[in-house]
Amino acid sequence: MSKAWNGFAVVDDIAVDKAARRTGVVRALVDRAVSWAREQGLPGIRLETQSNNVGACRFYERYGSELAGYDRHLYSALTPGTREIARYWYLRFA
Q: Model-level pTM greater than 0.85?
């Protein structure tokens, strides 16, 4: 977690071992991220995931995040010819 230039909290990375998925671990991590951002007085959280990470995209949407942008070229230098798209999600606090 960090504070971005625009004032939002940024979750730099969430990775959960395959065996621990669907056990509530990700929800607990995001809940803690939300708590931290609120403690800092920030307006919300920005998360990024890949378009092919459907499970994460669905989780962020169910959690209340809004898909607010994308970047078709973010991963292109890592994997030339990739069709992977970075998706940016925002969880804005009321």
A: yes
